[in-house]
C-alpha cells in the first residue's frame, strides 16, 4: 500500500515512503523538504524567471518541444513509474502521456497568439489622441499543489500553460505520488537542459502550506476540504488562487439514447483510473423505459473488465488498484452504506485479498439518502438510479453540492441541449464522458463547491497565469493635456460645455439647460 509512513531518521530529514499500492512493495523514500526546502527552491526560481520571460513564447516553446521529445523517448520509464506509485493499469497510465503531449503541442503552438499585446480601441474624446494596449505579464512564481490521481497528467494540465506564460513554477505533488513528477522535473533540468524555472518539492501538507506562503499565485488541484484552506490563506495574503476540486458527476440517460454507446461510456467513465478522477461518472440516472436494458448491458461490460497489474506494458488489464488505503476505505464504506440502506450489488462490491484493489462495482436500487449518491466516492463504482422522466433526472443531478462535469445521452441534439441548459455543472458532455476536459479550447470550471476559476479554455488557460498590464501611449505629442493644471475659467468652462455636448442624451442638456419635469 502506498502510505505516508513518515519516519524521523536519527540525523536526516523526515522521510516519506512510497509503496506500490498493488503489492505493497517499497518503491522509494523521499524527504519531506519542509518550509526550508520551499524557501530555497522559491529563491532559485525567482532568480531564473526574468530570463525565462525574456525568451518570449517562441524561445520557451523550443524548450517545451524538447521536453515533449524527452517524454516520448522515456515513455515506458514514466508509465512504469506512474504505475509503481499509483497501481494503475498500463493503459490508464499511458493516457497521461497522451495528455502531456497534447498539452505541450497546444500551448507550445498557440502561446504566441494568446500572449500577444492586445490593441484596444480607445474611448471618448480624451481617447482620440491615445493608443491603448494590454500586455500580458506573467506572475513571477506560481505554486502548484497537485493530488495523487494523475502524477504526470495533473501537473502538466496547469504547469504547461504557466511555463509557456513565462512564469517559474514551484510544484508540490501529493506525498502519495511524488516520484513521476520529480523524474519529469529532473528530465526538464538535466536532460532537456531547460532553464531552472521548474522545481518539484517533496513533502506533505505542511510543505504544501509553505508553498502558498512563498508564491505570487496558487493553482490548487485536490479535495474541496483542502481547497477551502488554500483559498483562505491566499485571501489573507491577497494573492490569486484557482481551485480545481472534487466532483460528483451525473450521467443522464434519456430514453432515446444509443444504449450501446452509453453503456460502454458508463463502464469506462466510472472505472477509468479505478474511478479516481474528479470528472468520472459518479452516479447515473436512467429513464424508466430503457432502465432494464441499460443496467443489463452496463453490468455485463463492467463484469468483463480485467483487474490487476500489467507492469510489462502488455495491456492485459483494464483497471488497476486504488492509490491508497484511505481512499479504498471510503469506497468500501460508500458501498456498505448503500447496501445497508437497501441497494443491490450487481457485480463487484468488495476489496481484493491482497493489494489495494476494489472490484469494479455496479449498484442499483440506490437513492439520495445514500453516501454513494451524495459524497464523492472517487472509486470504481457505478450507482444507477431509475427515474420517471427527464425532469426528475435533472432535479436529482442538481441535488448536489458539487458541479464539476456531467453527461447527457440522447440521439436528439436539441433535446440534449435543453437538458444541458438546466444542469448546474461547469461542463456537459452530450453522448460522451469526460471529453470536455481534454478539449483544451474549452474552459474547465467547477461550479458550486467544485472549484473557483477555470483552467484551459484557449487563451484564458494561459492568461490566467498573467497579470493584465494596461499601457496608454500618445498618438500625438502635446505639451500639456486640457484637464491638467492650471485651471483657467475660459478653458475649464469650455471643457464643461464639451462634456455636456458629447455626453448628454438630449438637446436641452446638451445646450446647458435643465428640462422641466
Ligand atoms: P488533497 O486535498 O488531500 O491534497 C491535494 C494536495 O494538497 C496534495 O499535494 C497535498 O499534500 C496538498 N495539501 C494538503 N493539505 C494542504 C494544506 N493545508 N496546505 C497546502 N497543501 C496541502 O487531495 P487528494 O486526496 O490528493 O486528491 C483527491 C481530490 O482531488 C479529489 O477530491 C478529486 O476530485 C480532486 N481532484 C480534482 C481535480 C480537478 O481538476 N477538479 C483533478 C484531480 C483531482
Total helical elements: 17
CATH-wise, what's the superfamily of the largest domain? Aldehyde Dehydrogenase, Chain A, domain 1
CATH architecture of the largest domain: 3-Layer(aba) Sandwich
Q: Strand portion, in percent?
A: 15-25%
Biggest β-sheet strands, sense, barrel: 7 strands, mixed
The proportion of residues forming helix, as a percent range, comes to 40-55%
Please state how the strands of the largest beta sheet are arranged side by side.
Answer: 13-14-15-12-11-17-18
- Average predicted local confidence, pLDDT: 96
| Radius of gyration based on Cα positions | 27 Å
- Kindly give the count of domains: 3
Structural class estimated from helices and strands: alpha/beta
**3D shape:** globular
Distance between the termini: 80 Å
Number of strands: 23
| Main CATH class of the largest domain | Alpha Beta
Q: Residue ranges: pLDDT <50 for 5 or more in a row?
A: 1-5
List the ligand species: nicotinamide-adenine-dinucleotide
Reported by name, the CATH topology of the largest domain is Aldehyde Dehydrogenase, Chain A, domain 1
Features:
single chain; 517 residues; alpha/beta; Aldehyde Dehydrogenase, Chain A, domain 1; Aldehyde Dehydrogenase, Chain A, domain 2; 3 domains; 20% strand
Q: What order do the helices and strands come in, and which of them pair?
A:
Layout: E1 6-8, E2 14-19, E3 26-31, H1 34-73, H2 75-86, H3 90-115, E4 118-120, H4 124-127, E5 130-138, E6 141-145, H5 153-165, E7 168-172, H6 179-191, E8 198-200, H7 205-214, E9 217-221, H8 224-237, E10 241-244, E11 249-253, H9 259-271, E12 281-287, H10 288-303, H11 325-340, E13 344-347, E14 361-364, H12 371-374, E15 381-387, H13 390-398, E16 402-403, E17 406-409, H14 413-420, E18 429-430, E19 443-444, E20 447-448, E21 451-452, E22 455-456, H15 459-463, E23 466-474, H16 489-503, H17 507-510
Parallel strand pairs: 6-7, 6-9, 7-8, 9-10, 11-12, 11-17, 12-15, 14-15, 17-18
Antiparallel strand pairs: 1-2, 2-3, 4-5, 5-23, 10-21, 13-14, 16-20, 19-22
The structure holds nicotinamide-adenine-dinucleotide.
Nicotinamide-adenine-dinucleotide (NAD) binds next to helix 7 and helix 8.
Pfam family, one: Aldedh
Protein name: Aldehyde dehydrogenase
InterPro entries: Ald_DH/histidinol_DH (IPR016161), Ald_DH_C (IPR016163), Ald_DH_CS_GLU (IPR029510), Ald_DH_N (IPR016162), Aldehyde_DH_dom (IPR015590)
Amino acid at each position: 500500500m502506498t502510505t505516508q509512513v513518515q519516519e524521523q531518521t536519527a540525523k536526516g530529514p523526515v522521510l516519506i515512503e512510497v509503496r506500490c499500492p498493488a503489492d505493497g512493495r517499497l518503491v522509494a523514500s523521499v524527504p519531506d523538504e519542509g518550509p526550508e526546502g520551499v524557501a530555497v527552491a522559491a529563491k532559485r526560481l525567482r532568480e531564473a524567471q526574468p530570463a525565462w520571460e525574456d525568451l518570449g513564447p517562441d524561445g520557451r516553446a523550443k524548450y517545451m518541444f524538447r521536453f515533449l521529445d524527452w517524454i516520448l523517448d522515456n515513455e515506458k520509464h514514466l508509465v512504469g513509474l506512474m504505475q509503481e506509485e499509483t497501481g494503475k493499469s498500463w493503459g490508464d497510465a499511458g493516457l497521461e502521456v497522451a495528455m502531456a503531449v497534447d498539452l505541450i503541442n497546444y500551448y507550445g503552438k498557440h502561446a504566441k497568439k494568446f500572449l500577444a499585446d492586445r490593441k484596444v480601441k480607445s474611448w471618448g474624446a480624451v481617447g482620440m489622441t491615445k493608443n491603448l494596449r494590454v500586455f500580458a505579464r506573467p506572475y513571477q512564481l506560481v505554486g502548484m499543489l497537485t493530488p495523487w490521481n494523475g502524477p504526470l497528467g495533473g501537473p502538466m494540465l496547469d504547469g504547461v500553460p504557466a511555463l509557456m506564460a513565462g512564469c517559474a513554477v514551484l510544484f508540490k505533488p501529493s506525498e502519495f505520488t511524488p516520484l513521476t513528477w520529480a523524474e519529469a522535473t529532473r528530465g526538464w533540468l538535466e536532460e532537456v537542459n531547460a532553464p531552472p524555472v521548474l522545481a518539484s518539492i517533496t513533502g506533505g501538507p505542511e510543505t504544501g502550506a509553505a508553498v502558498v506562503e512563498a508564491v505570487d499565485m496558487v493553482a490548487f488541484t485536490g479535495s474541496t476540504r483542502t481547497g477551502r484552506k488554500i483559498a483562505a490563506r491566499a485571501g489573507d495574503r491577497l494573492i490569486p488562487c484557482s481551485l480545481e476540486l472534487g466532483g460528483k458527476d451525473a450521467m443522464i440517460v434519456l430514453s432515446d439514447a444509443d444504449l450501446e454507446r452509453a453503456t460502454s461510456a458508463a463502464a469506462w467513465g466510472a472505472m477509468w483510473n479505478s474511478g479516481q478522477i474528479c470528472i468520472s461518472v459518479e452516479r447515473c440516472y436512467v429513464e424508466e423505459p430503457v432502465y432494464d436494458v441499460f443496467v443489463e448491458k452496463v453490468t455485463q461490460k463492467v463484469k468483463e473488465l480485467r483487474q490487476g497489474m500489467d507492469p510489462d506494458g502488455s495491456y492485459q488489464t483494464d483497471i488497476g488498484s486504488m492509490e491508497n488505503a484511505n481512499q479504498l476505505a471510503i469506497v468500501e464504506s460508500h458501498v456498505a452504506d448503500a447496501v445497508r440502506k437497501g441497494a443491490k450489488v450487481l457485480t463487484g462490491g468488495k476489496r481484493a485479498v491482497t493489494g489495494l484493489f476494489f472490484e469494479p462495482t455496479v449498484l442499483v436500487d440506490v437513492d439520495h439518502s445514500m453516501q454513494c449518491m451524495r459524497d464523492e466516492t472517487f472509486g470504481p463504482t457505478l450507482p444507477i438510479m431509475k427515474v420517471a422522466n427527464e425532469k426528475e433526472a435533472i432535479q436529482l443531478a442538481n441535488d448536489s453540492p458539487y458541479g464539476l462535469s456531467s453527461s447527457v445521452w440522447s440521439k436528439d441534439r436539441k433535446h440534449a441541449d435543453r437538458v444541458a441548459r438546466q444542469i448546474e455543472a461547469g461542463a456537459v458532455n452530450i453522448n460522451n464522458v469526460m471529453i470536455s476536459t481534454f478539449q483544451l479550447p474549452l474552459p474547465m470550471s467547477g461550479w458550486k463547491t467544485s472549484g473557483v476559476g477555470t483552467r484551459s479554455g484557449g487563451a484564458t488557460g494561459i492568461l490566467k497565469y498573467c497579470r493584465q498590464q494596461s499601457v496608454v501611449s500618445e498618438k500625438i505629442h502635446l505639451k500639456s493635456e486640457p484637464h491638467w493644471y492650471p485651471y483657467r475659467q475660459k478653458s475649464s468652462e469650455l471643457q464643461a460645455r464639451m462634456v455636456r455636448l458629447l455626453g448628454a442624451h438630449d438637446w436641452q442638456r446638451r445646450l446647458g439647460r435643465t428640462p422641466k419635469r
